[in-house]
């Protein structure tokens, strides 16, 4: 792993620990046990990152989502358990886990059982390469960005599995829509991501973040605030494209066709109950957060923000929640498009625009270089 | 007609008006020898024809005489005969009515179907067959419509054993989710939408055949909420026992509008004049109900197009809540009002009156802001427009053919509103407009409802002004109505009002007792729902759902 040289926050630089497993190895002295020790340290690190993300979804799913939607729709939402109703998280967990897991007769097992794990797991995998600041960064492969897109794309298989194996026509329709939608939007998503790679000159996540924060776009006169060259500011067009494609990718309004509650009951998740439902639901939230994490990393300067580097994780989570908030806002305010319109927007609109963006970016980067 | 609008001047002339408006001589010459007798109803001249002449008579009436609205089909059994009545009107002038009475023998109750002439007769005749037992020759699909296929007998016929319980279990009856795979070889997929589905607005079962995402065939299956409302009304006395039932037809918020349908029919039947003051209260209450009902329609339509977390739905409910509070103050109830009485209303406005006026005016003052908010959220949204414009298209002529009324018809450019065209209550004296749009699509229907809300607000405003200035000693809320109402035996009347969803009509035949001999409800949702097939075939599933939402059906009124 090779890192950049000068950056506002720690990167692998000389012998200093950069990634979370390395920190843990150093702190606990596990390094003396050789490979076994490093492996253990990696597991501990993965455990920490996984729980951080799960805690976020835990807050988001049962509580924050309700509160946000309620404030959009003039309601109060949960307010009985604990301050601001935050205790509902515990109550909801108990409720969901205590429910009977109803498995319909003619489901196709084990695909039916595996689908929720694939949906939730694929999103979890993506967080492995995201630099979250404050030293929380599991791995930093050179193909970081490609890895994230690849594992996030696995979710489509999970959706098809869920849709097909449920033995329910609504699920099947939802699964079919999910595939059509993911195929149509994954390409613009990746192509727009590529334009960022052209700027950064690397697929490595830490490198992409570093490049954004190294350069100053301009300085606000009088205040002496240096505005960093975050790609959202450098190329707002790509940012908007990516944001839209991302909403389609995670299946949120105006692109929530795979579920389409009023039409397809709940799409591919119709037949899932209890723990399986929790997993599917969790998977959805994880994907929203992963989408937020990718956007934060490649467009919003990752964990960068005012204050010391130790605050990195705070800024990062704030950016992720900003994207989450946006999805909830759209959910409350924007109608969903029809499936044919969705495909049309994807193939005829976004795809063309994203390639135009890529070509333009390539030309500009070439000229500057 | 509208007794009580100008009660002092010419109540008698008004009662005989329908007969005089219709050109009976022309009708007689048009029908010629096909009219074998006369059987006049209070609202219209009635011609008795042979069961074999139904199609020729109805098509002549439509094409030659302009009776293009088959409002309702009533079937009933007498001791010696079955009788089907076709209540016909003109969309251009609903006061110009004619009833075609088709008697058939008890042994062989077969009559020609009107379906080839009017598409709307399809469901109406199926219902007549289902409940009364008249069979219609030439009908494309004469099956039971409200009751299960395996039901024994026809509940409204004379020889039906009312005491014998009939249990229809799922195994006996066709299981609604059973015919899952119909044709293994075909490229299409059969999909049951409902009876339990988030978008059916109640217990409606839509049998859908899909070709990919495209809807190839749609067949609504109704009757899950059939509660024998007609029969229950036949077992209640005119004076008090029927009025609570209408609240339960269109039960979501249109209670007073429904009550007025019965009130209007019985008041015309028993020749009762309603005090002007009571009519104003009725008008005001009904328009409040209309706003509440349209708010609900708007909200649930948004739910169908936006998804479950939409703000629009909650906003409409927030505003509807204010109306519910006003109505609660007025009637003492939030939904099942039971506020109208035969000859007036139950009681005067709540004391202190100033507070009631203030509360209602406050709502009216805020309404334009609210409507502006909806416009921002809904009609100003481009995605909403791409979803709604040119989807669920219901052409003007098709809408007429299916007997569509209310905002559904007005969104298709049919300029038909009974409040203006067949005035009752206090509407004639007030200044308001009928909203029509000729988009014929989902968007037009939604806009139509939103604009009607504003018109209703105008009406309420004027009613409030009138009520405020009304002299204190002239506040009669009820006419002097006999304790027992016994209209003359054999008197028949069909009267309709403009309900929230369209023309809500009541047919009553008096048998001389204090209970109706036959009580028939013409539900606007029932007729409107029939058009779903026409609107959604060849479109996508999301449009089918949106079209269903834009029809604004309430299953309590469809199934009765």
Describe this structure in words.
- The complex is a heterodimer of chains A (369) and B (560).
- Chain A has one domain.
- Chain A is built from 13 helices and two strands.
- Chain A has helices at 20-28, 34-72, 88-98, 111-126, 144-165, 169-200, 205-214, 231-234, 236-250, 261-264, 274-299, 312-333, 339-368; strands at 216-220, 225-228.
- Chain A has a two-stranded antiparallel ribbon with strand order 1-2.
- Chain A is globular, with a radius of gyration of 21 Å.
- Chain B is of the alpha+beta class and 560 residues long.
- Chain B has two domains: 11-137, Beta Polymerase, domain 2, CATH 3.30.460; 229-559, Orthogonal Bundle (Cytochrome-c3 Hydrogenase, chain B).
- Chain B has helices at residues 11-15, 17-21, 24-31, 54-63, 121-131, 229-234, 255-269, 276-306, 311-331, 353-379, 382-388, 396-401, 406-410, 418-421, 442-469, 524-530, 532-536, 541-551, 555-559, and strands at residues 35-38, 46-49, 69-77, 81-89, 98-105, 110-112, 135-137, 189-193, 205-211, 214-221, 340-341, 344-345, 492-498, 503-510, 516-522.
- In chain B, the strands form five sheets. A five-stranded mixed sheet of chain B has the order 1-2-5-4-3, covered by helices on one side. Chain B has a three-stranded antiparallel sheet with strand order 8-9-10. In chain B, strands 13-14-15 form a three-stranded antiparallel sheet.
- The longest helix of chain B has 31 residues, at 276-306.
Total helical elements of chain B: 19
**How much is the average pLDDT of chain B?**
84
> Structural class, from helix and strand content of chain B?
alpha+beta
- List the total number of helices of chain A: 13
Number of domains of chain A: 1
* Lateral strand order in the biggest sheet of chain B: 1-2-5-4-3
Largest sheet of chain B: 5 strands, mixed
Q: How much of the sequence of chain A is in beta strands?
A: under 5%
CA gyration radius of chain A, whole angstroms: 21 Å
| Major beta sheet summary of chain A | 2 strands, antiparallel
Distance N terminus to C terminus of chain B?
27 Å
